[in-house]
Amino acid sequence: MLDRAIADLPRAFPGPGGAVAVLRRGRVIARHAWGFANTERRIPFTPATLFRLCSITKQFAVAAVLESRANLDRAIAARLPLLRAPPTAQHLMHNQSGLRDYWAVAMLHGAAVEGAFGDAEATRVIATTRSLHFTPGTRFSYVNQNFRLLSDALADVTGRSFADHLRGIFDRAGMHSAILAADTRALPDGTEGYEGAPTTGFRRADNNIIWTGDAGLGASLDDMIAWEKHIDATRDDPKSLHARLSAPVTFADGAPAFYGFGLNRGEAHGRALIGHGGALRGWRSHRFYVPSERVSVVVLFNHMADAQAAAHSLLGAALGAKPQGTTPAPTPAWLGTYQDPETGLSARIEAAQGAVRLRYGGLVETLPLQPDGSAGTTRTRLRATSRGLHMDRPQDNQSTRLAPRSGDAAPDIAGRYHCAELDAEITISDAGGTLYAAFSGFLGVGWMEALQPIGRDLWVLPMPRALDHAPPGDWTLAVRRQAGRPVALDIGVWLARGLRYRRV
Prior knowledge:
Largest sheet: 10 strands, antiparallel
Helix content: 10-25%
CATH architecture of the largest domain: 3-Layer(aba) Sandwich
Strand content: 25-35%
CATH superfamily of the largest domain: DD-peptidase/beta-lactamase superfamily
Distance between the termini: 63 Å
Number of strands: 32
Structural class: alpha+beta
Number of domains: 3
Number of helices: 11
């Protein structure tokens, strides 16, 4: 069953190349690579091919901090000089910092989709942070610079480079070819990432970002096999590195957190798992460990297919799990457009087969319909009560009553709007009766995209491409009026919200 699942991967997730591994009880039961690491130079993809692991780096950044035993709080505060009460290193490790994600904020500053973004740009975006979008420790929000700050602060405090700290972890785990590959333009063995599709063809993905503790790790499939073996071999040692990384995490109010120490806590096929994915334009990866079964799965694609879905298909095959059917449920009456009063973000709910689609966070969530009339999973749930539609998101430690936003959006908002906090602007233009908008700031002038009206004084600005592998999602633009005239916009996405733009 597992051999068949692996053989099906190149057709189910087509692209230039890939590599996968499955381990049980610390032994490799599957190790396979296919295709090309570089199609132009005809370099084959092998288990020794270096790969850009992207956000899988985060657990290694936290591991380096834990191993160092350094107190990073002052160094972190020094890199956030405009914040009166900056988050601590612990908040950063658990994605509970309240910071806005710097890749999302970079787009508000007009960053070019494939523009250069290095240490200087990152330092400036982070250092000019003036506010948080929630009190540290109270909510979850995925923020890349949490881990960049950890790695940079670690180097500040110890006087040793982040790469040097990683080397000690790599050597102990037997990850002999793993490196810090911070410059995303190239890997030393010539491996390339690709974007595209079989119908349109694949082309080399251009990246010009410098990454550190958030996503800078380069490693091969064999390196990751060594890491998974190390995890299993030390599973019973409470002082082991992975035991500390996988320890339970809570929010400030004691509620359990789904994320901590650079790792997701999840469930599949009725078993708890812990792991992480990674992505950059042209690269997708995913790894996890299932403690109860002592099973590890690693998937690496040098293209944009869904590595997480592939990893779960391999896990199902390894466990001999059978697909579960769904029970038909009636379409709910509460589909439509809403706004979350806490975050200011729009929540669009659409029908799907046996489910609803929620457009709220960075990704579109498919929520199965439940027998009690609600829709959801353990992480997100929509439920109707006599007081309205509630959205519960245990993953974020958030529960809110959504505000309906039906009606038409008046097209009188063309003009320039300035955000004092960012010293950045958005320009809205009426081009032949259709409104377009773009951001601009110290990083440049962004592309114009058509605004979409979704409710009364509520618009979304799609962002189909961004600096990072995936855009931050549709920006919500909520119009504020005085005497009937638009005077300001509240703009945000899940990664960067609560920003006020006043009409110039």
